[in-house]
Each structure stands twice: as structure tokens, then as C-alpha cells.
């Protein structure tokens, strides 16, 4: 008989072989402004439209492969998962769902960057020069104000 402490979370080998019903998963990913080492993003995953689990991480391994890591908490100098998902199919589905959401978030950022660079403004010096030329052309058509009494030339 196996020792109870030999199994993670008290799960028995028989429980791991169990099949689980399919889950409906939706993920959203937030990409930080600057990647931190191998951390590329954070994901929230909603299961069956009823339960949202936050703080999944999108990570990149040393070979450049992306993967979704379960939420974890730093305890005793080591990160320990705070969430578990059972069944190989559900684990694979989670990876696919989070990585697809990450890909969509990257594409959205790329589109936004292209949009911003496509409408590139002229250099500031060119804008100032153009504004000066327009002002000079506008002012050339104006007549000089009368000298003497005026709002700015009032006698005191």
C-alpha cells in the first residue's frame, strides 16, 4: 500500500488515470510593457463560464518554447502552485487556450504599433517651419492696425 505522503495532494495513481469531462475554457492575456526574464505575460482563464482563475503565467523556456504555468505563490524561497488541473487532455487544452490568447494579444499589440507608426507625425522642426509659413501668409493679407488710440495704445 502506498504511503499517503507519496502522492501530491493525496491523489492516488488510480485518480490520475481517471477521465474527466471536457472543460470550456476562455483566456485573456495581459502582456507587461517590458518582459521580465522568461515571463512574457499573465493570463486569466475562465472555466465553463463560471470560474475564473487568475495569475497564470506565459513563460518561455531556454529553448524558446512557450508554455502556460499554473498560478503559484512564493513560499520558503520556492514557487509552489496554488492551482492544479487534472487530466492530460485538460492540461493540453489549457496550454492551447492560454497560448492562443497570448498569440492574439501579441497580434493586437503589433497592429496597434503599426497603426501608430503608420500615422507618423512630421518632425517637430518641420511642423514649426510649416506653421510659421502659414502664419506669414495669413499675416501678409492683413492690414496694419491704425496707430494712435486703440486698445493697446490707449493714452493714460
Provide structural commentary.
The chain is of the alpha+beta class and 156 residues long. The protein has a single domain, classed as Arylsulfatase, C-terminal domain. It contains 3 helices and 6 strands; from the N terminus they run αββββββαα. A hairpin with an 8-residue loop joins strand 1 (25-30) and strand 2 (39-47). The protein is elongated and about 100 Å long.
Features of the shown structure:
single chain, 156 residues, alpha+beta, Arylsulfatase, C-terminal domain, 4-stranded antiparallel beta sheet, two-stranded antiparallel sheet, 3 helices, 34% helix, disordered N terminus
**What is the CATH homology-level superfamily?**
Stage V sporulation protein G
CATH class: Alpha Beta
Structural class, please?
A: alpha+beta
CATH architecture: 2-Layer Sandwich
What is the N-to-C succession of helices and strands? HEEEEEEHH
CATH topology: Arylsulfatase, C-terminal domain
* Number of strand elements: 6
Low-confidence stretches: 1-11
Mean pLDDT: 82
Q: How much strand content do the residues show?
A: 15-25%
Total domains, how many?
A: 1
**What about the largest sheet?**
4 strands, antiparallel
Shape: elongated
Measured on Cα atoms, how large is the radius of gyration? Answer: 31 Å
| Helix share bin | 25-40%
- Strand order, main sheet: write it out: 1-2-3-4
- Helical region count? 3
Straight-line distance between termini: 109 Å
Amino acid at each position: 500500500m502506498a504511503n499517503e505522503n507519496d502522492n501530491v495532494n493525496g491523489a492516488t495513481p488510480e485518480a490520475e488515470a481517471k477521465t474527466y469531462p471536457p472543460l470550456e475554457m476562455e483566456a485573456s492575456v495581459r502582456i507587461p510593457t517590458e518582459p521580465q526574464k522568461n515571463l512574457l505575460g499573465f493570463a486569466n482563464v475562465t472555466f465553463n463560464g463560471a470560474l475564473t482563475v487568475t495569475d497564470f503565467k506565459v513563460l518561455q523556456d531556454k529553448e524558446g518554447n512557450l508554455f502556460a504555468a499554473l498560478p503559484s505563490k512564493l513560499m520558503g524561497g520556492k514557487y509552489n502552485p496554488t492551482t492544479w488541473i487534472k487530466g492530460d487532455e485538460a492540461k493540453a487544452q489549457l496550454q492551447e487556450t492560454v497560448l492562443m490568447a497570448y498569440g492574439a494579444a501579441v497580434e493586437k499589440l503589433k497592429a496597434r504599433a503599426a497603426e501608430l507608426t503608420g500615422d507618423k507625425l512630421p518632425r517637430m522642426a518641420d511642423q514649426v517651419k510649416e506653421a510659421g509659413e502659414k502664419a506669414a501668409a495669413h499675416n501678409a493679407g492683413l492690414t496694419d492696425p491704425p496707430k494712435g488710440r486703440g486698445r493697446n495704445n490707449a493714452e493714460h
